[in-house]
């Protein structure tokens, strides 16, 4: 109870200059986080250098809540690679393994078929209507590394947005009421 | 400086940093493992070889696959995903790779095996180029760690070929 009284007192005694300084500090923190994210995009060559595994289609290797580190290079796509791709018109990236590759002699373009390790059938059912193959431009990156469990934070924040608001509210309160 | 908030924050930051460091070292330790996997594949029988109604060739074959992948397992290995693919060239395509069979190996005991099986996934060409076609069979493996960097490699076995006529 004393902690709440302390908080209310410190909000009452806020000076404008101190408030502005703290606002700028907060802005700097957010901006540096953004800079780091964009730098990672440059280094790894893909729009999303880190993805969270959302489904169980690659179990037991990747469980829901794991995070994957991605990289995209100009190397050709070959069977066995775990790729992250987006179907035209859908937002959610899918992480599956390439099981078939057909590369054209003349143009170098590839037809790719994917399948989740834990699924019984290949991904033809997931592709857009009439689409039989994936092409290079669908593929956002290859999975090169992996960390277990860390992605649960993101899943919880997406599926129960109230937790996101609570967290941001609490962080905001902490910043405002801290004396430095 | 000594409030609960500051202490909790310091503790959290330190534990996350320590965990990240441990994961990185665990992954790094994989570099020191000595790996020498071996494999052998034989085609026991061509079960079916025909041209589908829309013009693409399809083959069904029975393979005898024996492999020893035990040396790939380290303390940081969660599983090894192994698969066999056929690789060949056609007039239109410089490379075709078709996965025929795969297996998830959860631990070292299961990593040395011999299995006779027909192809799990359909071997269908883009076209009808498979008569008399020479192809490689490759055994690929993908080592998935408990944390960190994944490793993939393969053994290429050349010299297989399909019959000259449909069956």
UniProtKB/TrEMBL annotation, chain A:
Gene Ontology annotations for the cellular component aspect, listed alphabetically: signal peptidase complex
Keyword annotations from UniProtKB, A to Z: Endoplasmic reticulum, Hydrolase, Membrane, Protease, Signal-anchor, Transmembrane, Transmembrane helix
Any Pfam family: Peptidase_S24
Catalyses which reaction(s): Cleavage of hydrophobic, N-terminal signal or leader sequences from secreted and periplasmic proteins
Topological relation to the membrane, as annotated: Single-pass type II membrane protein
Compartment list: Endoplasmic reticulum membrane
Enzyme class: hydrolase
SUPFAM superfamilies noted in UniProt: LexA/Signal peptidase
GO BP, one annotated term: signal peptide processing
Superkingdom of the organism of origin: Eukaryota
Occurrences of domain Peptidase S24/S26A/S26B/S26C (ranges): 36-143
Main location: endoplasmic reticulum
PANTHER family listed in its UniProt record: SIGNAL PEPTIDASE COMPLEX CATALYTIC SUBUNIT SEC11, SIGNAL PEPTIDASE I
Entry protein name: signal peptidase I
Lineage summary: Eukaryota, Viridiplantae, Streptophyta, Embryophyta, Tracheophyta
From TrEMBL, chain B:
Topology within the bilayer: Single-pass type II membrane protein
Source organism superkingdom: Eukaryota
InterPro entries: SPC3
Hydrolase among keywords: no
GO cellular component: signal peptidase complex
Keyword Zinc-finger: no
Places the protein is found: Endoplasmic reticulum membrane
One GO-annotated biological process of the protein: protein targeting to ER
Keywords: Endoplasmic reticulum, Membrane, Signal-anchor, Transmembrane, Transmembrane helix
Pfam family, one: SPC22
Membership in a protein family: Belongs to the SPCS3 family.
Role this protein plays: Essential component of the signal peptidase complex (SPC) which catalyzes the cleavage of N-terminal signal sequences from nascent proteins as they are translocated into the lumen of the endoplasmic reticulum. Essential for the SPC catalytic activity, possibly by stabilizing and positioning the active center of the complex close to the lumenal surface.
The protein's name: Signal peptidase complex subunit 3
Source species: Brassica carinata (Ethiopian mustard)
